[in-house]
UniProtKB/TrEMBL annotation:
Residues 1-20, 124-148 are annotated as: Disordered. PANTHER family: PHYTANOYL-COA DIOXYGENASE FAMILY PROTEIN (AFU_ORTHOLOGUE AFUA_2G03330). This is Phytanoyl-CoA dioxygenase. It comes from the Eukaryota. The lineage of its organism: Eukaryota, Fungi, Dikarya, Ascomycota, Pezizomycotina. InterPro entries: Fungal_Metabolite_Diox, Phytyl_CoA_dOase-like. It comes from Coniosporium apollinis (strain CBS 100218).
């Protein structure tokens, strides 16, 4: 019987230079990452991405963030106007494999989900500094699994912050361990509502007494892997600069999610199963089409993470 309370802070794995060079964690670190995902629903992989590569993409996406913010009520915000969904430009000039298809990330996700996970979602969320028209506000604690879902790991979110994350600039609040038994009955708001998946207040109070939430400090260059079911919420950014964090989803190979990601045609040779270890569900279009459309995509609950052809009457 466990006699000590589990920690609220996530486990971090510091990836060594030899592991980076080989593109694989050693067995011990892979075990730590896998056990953290099962117990906590989240693990941080440190020292994964070169800072200069993050800076290049961040410069582009910060400019885009201000463009999206200028749209006011028409901006792609989630829950409140200080937190927007923002897609990266998936063009050849902005492509960086260590950000989008890191082999160590795929090693971790495929260990939990099975070989060749499906990549069918690439987006991001940006915490914007407060303004007069958008005062500081937190998202309600919610789960992205706002539908009837399997009670085993079926989807892992890969978050790549383009800067270091702290409570000051809006590090996401996470409730470790809540992925293990969350259900639709725990939630308020149906899929399709702008604020679906909200966790009921009485459950938050109960959980806080058992294992409270945290806003982790995440070092620049880290990549976070979390279970889609985990309770979490975007927090206000009190710094001067937008805090961009990319978000990809690796679905289990057996999980029949039909979504596709639009990539530039030039990236097709880079996204084969042999190169990525992933089953990339892609639609390849000309660079010009990506450039003209990536800031105007659907957002929020227009994406549905459920699967086609569910198994009925078996489990």
């Amino acid at each position: 019987m466990r006699t000590t309370q589990l920690p609220s802070e996530p486990l971090s794995v510091h990836v060594s230079e030899s592991e980076l060079n080989s593109g694989r964690l050693n067995d011990q670190n892979l075990e730590i990452a896998t056990r953290a995902l099962h117990r906590d629903g989240l693990v941080v992989l440190e020292n994964m991405v070169d800072h200069a590569k993050l800076d290049k993409l961040n410069e582009k996406m910060v400019k885009d963030a201000y463009e999206l913010q200028s749209r006011g009520e028409d901006s792609p915000y989630n829950y409140n106007r200080g937190n927007i969904q923002q897609d990266p430009p998936l063009t050849a000039s902005c492509w960086e494999p260590s950000i989008f298809v890191h082999p160590i990330v795929t090693q971790v996700t495929s260990t939990t989900l099975g070989p060749f996970p499906r990549l069918s979602f690439v987006s991001g969320n940006t915490a914007l500094p407060p303004t007069e028209s958008s005062p500081p506000a937190a998202q309600p604690t919610h789960t992205d699994a706002d539908f009837d879902h399997p009670h085993l790991p079926f989807a892992l979110v890969v978050n790549v912050p383009l800067v270091g994350m702290t409570p000051e600039n809006g590090s996401t609040e996470v409730w470790l361990g809540t992925h293990l038994n969350t259900t639709l009955e725990d939630q308020e708001g149906k899929h399709g509502d702008r604020a679906s998946g909200r966790i009921k207040r009485e459950l938050l109070d109960q959980r806080r007494a058992e294992r409270g939430p945290c806003q982790p400090v995440v070092k620049k260059g880290s990549i976070i892997v979390r279970d889609l079911r985990l309770w979490h919420g975007g927090m206000p950014n009190m710094s001067r600069d937008p805090r961009v964090m990319l978000a990809f989803i690796h679905f289990a190979p057996w999980y029949r999610n039909p979504m596709e990601v639009e990539f530039a045609e030039k990236l097709k040779p880079e996204l084969t199963a042999e190169k990525t270890g992933l089953r990339v569900q892609a639609k390849f279009v000309p660079d010009e089409e990506i450039e003209s459309g990536y800031l105007n995509r659907p957002y929020g609950n227009t994406y549905f993470f459920d699967q086609e052809q569910r198994l009925e009457g078996i489990f």
